[in-house]
Design brief:
The protein is mainly beta. 6% of the residues lie in helices and 43% in strands. It has 2 helices and 14 strands; from the N terminus they run ββαβββαβββββββββ. The chain has helices spanning 35-38, 77-83, and strands spanning 4-11, 30-34, 47-52, 55-65, 73-76, 91-98, 107-110, 118-124, 130-136, 142-145, 153-156, 165-171, 176-182, 188-191. It has a 6-stranded mixed β-barrel with strand order 1-5-2-4-3-6. Strands 11-8-7-14 form a 4-stranded antiparallel beta sheet, with no helix packed on it. It has a 4-stranded antiparallel beta sheet with strand order 10-9-12-13, with no helix packed on it. β7 and β8 form a beta hairpin.
Length: 200
């Protein structure tokens, strides 16, 4: 994966943010992605290795930094402290996408308010960034579901129906996971059956 040169600042992170993930008090090694590279939530959930003056830290993208320019990561205070003295406030970094070992399969989270007519699905616990989500209709056609800037794939007019669903998830490297029998459980998370292989 290509390396990016940029700068890092820090903020008081909770793990929640623009990517619509739940807060993760037990894991605050997270970052907000700059607005120029956020790419309509494409980086949400991605893991980055960030090198600063005092070392390297791995963080997960959970938020958007609206005022940040290309290359800039707004790290959690905890992540920043692992690679620099927080007193510095703003440091030069080199970062790149990584593909860590994760426990368990990818998961599907249905948004509160999701239903058979307005079906909003988020992919969670994915090793590599997600490029697309498709679902299969009763007739066997694959429908590409549009992604929102708040990191849900939302199918409407028509919705996906009441489920259970067959999903096909493609990561940035072209790896595909197909899951069938996924029930619709509003405001809840359903485990899939697979995890992506390591990226390049």
């Amino acid at each position: 994966n290509p390396t990016h040169q940029g700068i890092a600042t820090y903020y008081d992170a909770t793990g929640a943010g623009a990517c619509s993930f739940a807060a993760t008090p037990d894991d605050l090694l997270v970052t907000a992605m700059n607005a120029e590279e956020y790419a309509n939530a494409a980086y949400c959930g991605a893991y980055l290795s960030v090198r600063g003056p005092l070392g390297t830290v791995m963080v997960r993208v959970v938020d958007l930094c609206p005022e940040c320019r290309a290359g800039h990561l707004d790290l959690s205070r905890e992540a920043f402290a692992q690679i620099a003295d927080p007193v510095d406030g703003r440091i030069a970094i080199i970062w790149q996408l990584v593909s860590p070992e994760l426990t368990g399969p990818i998961a599907y989270h249905f948004k509160a308010g999701s239903n058979q007519w307005w079906t909003a699905v988020q992919v969670r616990n994915h090793r590599n960034p997600i490029a697309r989500l498709e679902y299969r209709t009763a007739g066997g056609a694959w429908i590409d579901v549009p992604r929102t800037a708040y990191n849900y794939f939302v199918q409407t007019d028509p919705g996906m129906g009441p489920g259970p669903y067959t999903f096909r998830i493609t990561d940035w490297y072209g790896n595909v996971i197909e899951d069938s029998g996924i029930p619709h459980r509003e405001d809840d998370t359903v485990a899939g059956n697979g995890q992506f292989p390591p990226g390049p």
